[in-house]
Automatic annotation (TrEMBL):
Recorded superkingdom: Bacteria
InterPro entries referenced in this protein's UniProt entry, alphabetically: UrcA_uranyl
The protein's name: UrcA family protein
Protein source organism: Gluconobacter albidus
Keyword Signal listed: yes
Length: 123
């Protein structure tokens, strides 16, 4: 059985520097691990429009990391949809936390944000 684990790290910082990566450029980080950084620093997640954009970016990143694991033979094609759903669901949970942080910092004008989606599969 293949086990999936997904980690979405959200950070808001006035000192953070956005180094945006294209979601399609999932980078291998180790054996059976792929990650991509999603730049959300230009988005205000408290608005419906930007919340929708963030969700689309996470969906694309979930697809990219799962496809990378398939290409690297860590997953079989038939596990791709489950992998993407798992990655998206876990990332979405943490996206709520990022939005809450933005709400807290919104009054002070700080809206930088990064999301790192890392996905690994063990055989």
């Amino acid at each position: 059985m293949i086990r999936f684990s997904t980690l979405l790290l959200c950070a808001l910082s006035t000192a953070s520097v956005a180094l945006p990566l294209q979601a399609a450029d999932a980078a291998p980080t180790g054996i059976g691990t792929t990650s991509t950084e999603i730049d959300l620093s230009s988005l205000d997640l408290t608005t419906t429009r930007d919340w929708t954009i963030a969700n689309k970016k996470i969906a694309r990143a979930s697809h990219a990391v799962c496809q990378k694991l398939i290409q690297d033979n860590w997953l079989v094609d038939s596990d791709g949809a489950d992998c993407e759903q798992d990655a998206f669901s876990r990332a979405h949970e943490d996206l709520y936390a990022l939005r809450d942080q933005q709400r807290t910092l919104h009054q002070s004008g700080h809206q930088n944000g990064h999301v790192l989606l890392a996905l690994s599969a063990g055989k």
